[in-house]
Design brief:
heterotrimer, A mainly alpha, B mainly alpha, C mainly alpha, B: Helix Hairpins, C: mainly alpha, 2 domains
Chain lengths: 341, 100, 172
């Protein structure tokens, strides 16, 4: 058991723990930001300015009764939230969040701040995102209720439609980064042009970034693409029949998916952990700031824009976003060929 | 020590299981699933041989086999839907209109 | 040692899941078990130094084709298949087409194993060199195999159009 191995195990547990915490923090941030956008106060009773509100929510969810409809398929009903939560956490395992560090000289070799460094990391994120469709579709089916089935089928059809544009946005970054490993793509974005403009890919690929964010929001079923779980239309869509911790699993999966999409966007487009003023070993602070900015943007979008109706959503995904993504890949490929990156 | 033969035996077993599924099951969708098992067994053989020869060609043929399998699954399921709409049954023995 | 254990584990999962796929009555469970089998095969591809194929297997097979199957099974909501054999006794114990079919498949397996392993199989494991970079696959795909690549794209287009036309309701 070398020191490096122990450090890697601790890192894995640390990442898992921080993802759980990030979901709790997102619950609070969402409610507080929503309140401030709507000119009201939001949670302010539990703890100073309401920061203990997520704790109260978790305690409430733990004590609720775990219900299951009698006609529901018991095995699939129990399996669906497990699949959803597992895929959400698994997708983050290949995302790097900092430069290599030796923890101030404790470790003989540098430790990569990434649970596993795969050389096809971009594809792995995409693959696990496509597996998370199953959690939703099985939840909708096994609940044996109209709202759940419709919500589940619509949601999964939406997710697989936007996966295409998601993949094409990833392809356009791949053309620029010339590597499928997220660490390599981030390291290509270090340094600056003209001394002050950082070499982020978002400046080379603004449309690609836009497509990625839109597809990411649709993939995580967040507003304005959250029709399948809209309260006004479908009760609660695919998680209507779930209560207590199973519902918490779906909630957790949604927030962790948001964090993963933001983290991958930061790594691919916003330069990862590179930033001015701080040494490389503290780059994870920049990473957190950038991910926080994108998550704030997510929450801001939810409470500002009205919801897309389902047919508008599908039409947008197929007839607008997909052609734009394809043309973006073509233009990027032509640019890379001509300017020779 | 895992040799090529291990992978070949495994793919032979999977191929035979797929064939058994096509013979034995009386449900159109399960028959299509068994065809997918057979195609996957063939994919495994290609990748194993590609690795044994040190070439990437095995992986490329797998690419094409996967694409063809996807196309075939899509069209096969469309036919199943059309048939189900006609006769409300997924048992291939009910579709005997062309029998002598 | 670790990779041997991994091979046997993945192989066992793949075989058991495939057997259960053809033995299950409920088509939804069949689809889910097949997804598990694909996951095991993906692990085998990783062991064979083909990470790109492994991930593509998950994305295309487990993530797209199986979702299509699942949708069709859910929307058709087909009843369990009616069987012609007596359900109280296990079907393999009754004389009939099912037992004969299983026997034929077992015979096929024996033949295949014999044919595949008689070619003087390498008893020394895999040779050292392997090609696993996506760059090399891409280069081959667009140079030597460019014609099948283009033909495949036309094939997918035809399949898409065909599927839409076949599954369309007849409008009067």
């Amino acid at each position: 058991m070398t020191a490096l191995l122990i450090a890697q195990i601790v890192l894995t547990l640390f990442v898992f723990f921080m993802l759980l915490n990030s979901a709790a923090v997102m619950v609070y941030v969402e409610r507080k930001v929503a309140a401030l956008l709507q000119q009201r106060l939001g949670p302010y009773r539990v703890g100073w300015q309401g920061v203990l509100q997520p704790l109260a929510d978790i305690v409430k969810l733990l004590f609720k009764e775990e219900l299951r409809p009698k006609a529901a398929d018991a095995f699939l009903f129990a399996l669906a939230p497990i699949i959803a939560a597992t895929c959400a956490f698994a997708a983050f395992s290949v995302v790097p969040f900092g430069a290599e560090t030796t923890l101030g000289g404790w470790l003989p070799e540098p430790l990569k701040l990434q649970v596993s460094d795969v050389n096809v990391a971009i594809l792995v994120v995409f693959a696990i995102a496509s597996m998370s469709v199953y959690g939703i579709v099985l939840a909708g089916w096994s609940s044996n209720s109209k709202y759940s089935l419709l919500g589940g089928l619509r949601s999964s059809a939406q997710m697989i439609s936007y996966e295409l544009s998601y993949g094409l946005a990833l392809t356009s970054v791949l053309l620029l980064g010339q590597s499928m490993s997220l660490t390599d793509v981030v390291n290509q974005q270090s340094g600056t042009w003209l001394g002050f403009i950082p070499r982020w890919f978002v400046f080379l690929q603004p449309i690609g970034f836009l497509i990625y964010m839109i597809a990411g929001i649709a993939e995580t079923n967040r507003a304005p693409f959250d029709f399948p779980e809209a309260e006004q239309e479908l009760v609660a869509g695919y998680h209507t029949e779930y209560s207590s911790m199973s519902f918490a699993m779906f909630f957790l999966a949604e927030y962790v998916n948001m964090v993963t999409v933001s983290a991958v966007a930061t790594d691919l487009f916003l330069g990862g952990w590179h930033g001015p003023f701080l040494p490389e070993s503290l780059g994870w602070i920049w990473f957190l700031l950038k991910v926080g900015a994108i998550l704030f943007f997510y929450v801001w979008m939810r409470w500002t824009l009205p919801r897309y109706r389902y047919d508008q959503l599908m039409r947008f995904g197929w007839k607008v976003l997909l052609p734009v993504a394809v043309i973006n890949v073509l233009v990027t490929a032509a640019g890379v060929l001509y300017f020779g990156i | 020590m895992i040799t090529v033969n291990h992978y070949l035996v495994l793919s032979a077993i999977l191929f035979a299981i797929g064939t058994a599924g096509v013979f034995v099951r009386r449900n159109l969708i399960t028959i299509l699933l068994s065809i997918e098992i057979m195609l996957n067994a063939v994919n495994l053989t290609f990748v194993a041989f590609g690795r044994a020869l040190g070439a990437a060609d095995g992986q490329i043929i797998v690419f094409f086999v996967m694409t063809v399998a996807a196309a075939e699954a899509a069209v096969g399921l469309a036919i199943v839907i059309a048939l189900f709409r006609h006769r409300e049954s997924l048992n291939p023995d009910t579709f005997t209109a062309l029998k002598w | 040692m670790g990779s041997e254990l991994a091979f046997y584990l993945f192989a066992a999962v793949a075989v058991v899941a495939s057997l259960l796929v053809i033995a299950q009555r409920n088509p939804i469970y069949s689809v889910l078990l097949l997804i598990a089998s694909f996951g095991a095969l993906s692990g085998l591809y990783v062991l064979l130094d083909a990470p790109f194929v492994a991930v593509i297997q998950i994305v295309v097979y487990a993530g797209a084709i199986m979702v299509l199957f699942l949708f069709v099974v859910m929307l058709l909501n087909a009843p369990h298949e009616e069987t012609e054999y007596d359900e109280r006794v296990h079907p393999l114990l009754q004389a009939g087409p099912l037992r004969f079919g299983a026997f034929l498949a077992a015979a096929l397996m024996v033949e295949l194993v014999w044919a595949l392993t008689k070619g003087g199989g390498e008893a020394g494991g895999f040779p050292g060199r392997s090609v696993s970079s996506v760059k090399e696959i891409g280069r081959l795909l667009f140079t030597e195999y460019s014609f099948p690549f283009e033909v495949t794209s036309i094939l997918i287009l035809v399949a898409m159009v065909g599927a839409v036309v076949l599954a369309r309701r007849e409008t009067p």
